[in-house]
Design goal:
CATH topology of chain A: outer membrane lipoprotein receptor (LolB), chain A
Distance between the termini of chain B: 30 Å
Helix content of chain B: 55-70%
Oligomer: heterodimer
CATH architecture of chain A: Clam
CATH superfamily of chain A: Lipoprotein localisation LolA/LolB/LppX
Structural class of chain B: alpha+beta
Largest sheet of chain B: 6 strands, mixed, barrel
Strand content of chain A: over 45%
Structural class of chain A: alpha+beta
Radius of gyration of chain A: 18 Å
Number of helices of chain A: 4
Chain lengths: 253, 471
């Protein structure tokens, strides 16, 4: 879900900063620009489909997603039928799950943080993680590369020593024109590649140019990936903070 | 022949000495056999319990299931394969199962549980779940009723309090725990049975409902008619969540399983995990459960089971238990080795004494012209006879007791039983019938006797007649 959020932001980033030229920006500034919508933009309402691909099977989950700033997010599963009606609520660094079949509201315990969200390659922790790509890393431009015909900054981000982050370093490719995260490689503390995220199918949605398809490929799992497609998205439609409540988890449609 | 005759007469010349020596051999044989039988019998019982209440002797599974027990590693319930398996002469029944884990919860209580989807009727071939339904329970209410009944002795009331919250699948175990003798049973038991009787239900294919283990039901504070919530991961990473009415409480003799088992009707369980039509295993009940017959059956079935499925035997499936038993068996052997050592010294001690006592006698015999060789062979015959008497009588006593014990395992009652249950064991010790271990024990004791002969023989050959005469 974090993915969705970050995705969202980078969509926002794209829109907001499309006109800024990156020539004279520091690497930290570039990342900040690409990331700023995290805190800068207000809300989003979206309809997404997540496809979990495994060597022998694949499965698609559709959901609606509401976010407000970095703090709040609410997700409602709309398909498949068996799971329809489940909701997830993120408030600051807590996450809750409502399951209508058993009428239970469950707070996800720390032990579940490393598990995949809805069986995907996104962990619950990915969704909740509070670290900042701006403040918790040291940035350095290591080159310029083309990703799908778009010229990108290649920025290496090394985690600061006492930052509470799970990655050792990241390499991100940020579109020079629209400030889109087009590709990210995430490495663990020992310098091994853990996953690659790629943004593609760049489209104009609700007036912004954004990648509408994100692929997450875990490095050590052959034949596995998770694909998120944004089917519909609206920005800055006012949402009251009280929308992100446990009561609403049971009501929202 | 003369030697033997002389040896025989020598034996009865000093009856007491002979009896003491053969008695030490008798005890050696008896204790070795007794403990061995008890130990091996208990293993046998535990294996049977584990196998018959859970894994079955042989299972057909999806090939990756054993290494990674997830719902994705299941196979389609194939009726054609089932027919082929049932056609095997040693296969009595094929029992479909769907097994997985889930979190079970009731209010604030949550526990990881083993979810077992079963065909309630077919399961009667193997784990016999229907026989494990709780029929009596010593809950607070029934204990207070027992406490108020003037006809029930105080001793029984005290034991009832000790066993508070225990559940029983039959009245004989209840009778034992309460320390009621068979003589008193007809008078007291009917009222105790009525005080403690427990209304229980069963599950049916197609009807949502669960059976839960007695210990689990106590942990989750759930009773008949209450709702249990199960949540886990289903087929292809879907969410498996459901709430079910508790139809019945079962008591599984293995406490480790009793505190985490939840039975669902097979089809309901498949629905919960979004894996309609799939099985995690097809457990086979066999006609002949001896190791050899099972190995042969497995070899035959291996040819039928192809594709993504595999055959597994009970040894492989109960690996942990097999190795635990092995370790325990080793420690049992060490105990027996110590027992043998003590007894070997006992036998040797009597032989030593016997040799010292008869030093003068030996001297006289040699002095009047008996060859040392002949004397030695008479002595050997004597010792062998003593050994034989001891071994035969020991084996006889042990056989009688063991044969009785096979039909009447030692069942602990009262507080002793409580202690066993607290350790997670069934409060009983079973005997193993006459088997190859008999020969081994007898062989070892015979070896002991032979070794102790060496001493008197060397004494005889080294003997200086002059010195011996003065002894």
């Amino acid at each position: 879900m974090k993915k969705q959020i970050s995705l969202l932001f980078f969509l926002l980033a794209a829109g907001t900063f499309a006109t800024v030229t990156g020539q004279d920006l520091s690497p930290k500034e570039i990342v900040r620009l690409a990331d700023e919508k995290f805190n800068g933009e207000k809300t989003s309402t979206s309809l997404m489909a997540m496809t979990i691909v495994r060597p022998t099977w694949e499965r698609t989950i559709e959901f609606k997603n509401w976010t407000s700033g970095k703090e709040y997010a609410l997700t409602l599963i709309t398909a498949p039928a068996k799971e329809k009606g489940q909701t997830f609520l993120k408030r600051q660094n807590e996450m809750w799950n409502w399951n209508p079949t058993i009428s239970r509201l469950i707070k996800l315990p720390p032990s579940m943080m490393s598990q995949g969200w809805m069986g995907s390659d996104y962990t619950n922790d990915d969704i909740l993680k509070e670290s900042s790509v701006v403040n918790d890393y040291d940035h350095e431009i290591v080159g310029e590369e083309e990703i799908n015909g778009r010229l990108c900054y290649k920025i290496k981000m090394v985690a600061k020593e006492n930052a509470a982050v799970i990655w050792g370093h990241q390499i991100r490719w940020i579109d020079k024109k629209d400030f889109l995260f087009l590709k990210s490689e995430l490495y663990d503390e020992d310098g091994y590649l853990v996953r690659t995220e790629t943004g593609m199918d760049i489209k104009n949605m609700d007036g912004r140019v954004i990648p509408t398809r994100i692929e997450l490929v875990p490095a050590d799992e052959e034949g596995q990936k998770t694909v998120i497609e944004i089917k519909q998205i609206e920005f800055n439609k006012p949402i009251n903070d009280s929308f992100f409540s446990q009561q609403n988890m049971k009501r929202v449609r | 022949m003369n030697n033997l005759k002389m040896a025989w007469r020598n034996l009865w010349r000093n009856r007491r000495r002979t009896l003491i020596t053969s008695a030490s051999v008798l005890f050696a044989v008896f204790f070795a056999l007794f403990f061995r039988s008890l130990q091996l019998g208990s293993y046998d019982h535990m294996f049977k319990n584990a196998i018959e209440s859970y894994t079955g002797y042989i299972q057909v599974q999806q090939k990756d299931y054993w290494d990674e027990k997830i719902v994705d590693n299941t196979f389609a319930y194939d009726r054609q394969l089932e027919q082929q398996l049932l056609a095997d002469k040693n296969v009595e029944a094929a029992i479909p199962r769907f097994e997985s884990f889930a979190l079970a919860s009731n209010g604030p209580q949550t526990k990881g549980v083993l979810v077992l989807g079963i065909d309630p009727e077919k399961e009667n071939h193997l784990s016999k779940v229907s026989e494990k339904m709780v029929r009596y329970r010593l809950d607070a209410e029934s204990i207070s009723k027992i406490g108020q009944d003037p006809e029930i002795p105080d001793k029984v009331k005290e034991l009832a309090r000790l066993f508070e919250d225990n559940a029983y699948t039959n009245s004989s175990r209840l009778q034992l725990d309460l320390g009621i003798s068979d003589k008193d049973a007809p008078v007291i038991m009917p009222s105790i049975e009525s005080f403690t009787s427990f209304e229980n239900g069963y599950i049916k294919m197609g009807e949502p409902g669960v059976l839960v283990g007695d210990k689990l039901s106590q942990y989750l504070q759930l009773g008949i008619g209450d709702t249990i919530v199960l949540i886990g991961q289903g087929y292809h990473a879907s969410t498996a969540a459901g709430k079910y009415e508790i139809k019945g409480i079962v008591k599984i003799p293995l406490p480790d399983i009793d505190n985490k088992i939840v039975y669902l009707p097979l089809d309901i369980c498949q629905g919960l995990y979004n894996a309609e039509g799939n099985l995690t295993s097809l457990a086979l009940d066999v006609v002949d459960n001896r190791d050899k017959a099972i190995d042969e059956t497995m070899a035959r079935i291996d040819k039928i089971v192809t594709g993504d499925k595999r055959v597994m035997g009970w040894r492989e499936m109960n690996e942990v238990m097999v190795s635990q038993m092995d370790a325990d068996n080793k420690s049992g052997m060490i105990m027996i080795a110590i027992l043998y050592l003590v007894i070997a010294f006992g036998v040797f001690g009597t032989v030593l004494m016997l040799t010292a006592e008869r030093k003068r006698e030996f001297g006289v015999l040699v002095a009047i012209g008996m060859q040392k060789k002949k004397l030695a062979s008479v002595m050997t015959a004597e010792m062998l006879l003593i050994g034989l008497i001891g071994m035969l009588s020991g084996a006889l006593v042990a056989t009688v007791i063991i044969l009785y014990g096979v039909g009447h395992p030692i069942i602990f009652k009262g507080s002793m039983a409580k202690m066993f249950e607290d350790y997670g064991m069934e409060p009983m010790m079973a005997f193993l019938g006459i088997n190859t271990y008999f020969l081994w024990q007898i062989f070892i004791v015979a070896l002991m006797v032979l070794l102790s002969i060496v001493y008197p023989l060397s004494k005889i050959f080294k003997m200086k007649v002059v010195n011996a005469l003065r002894a």
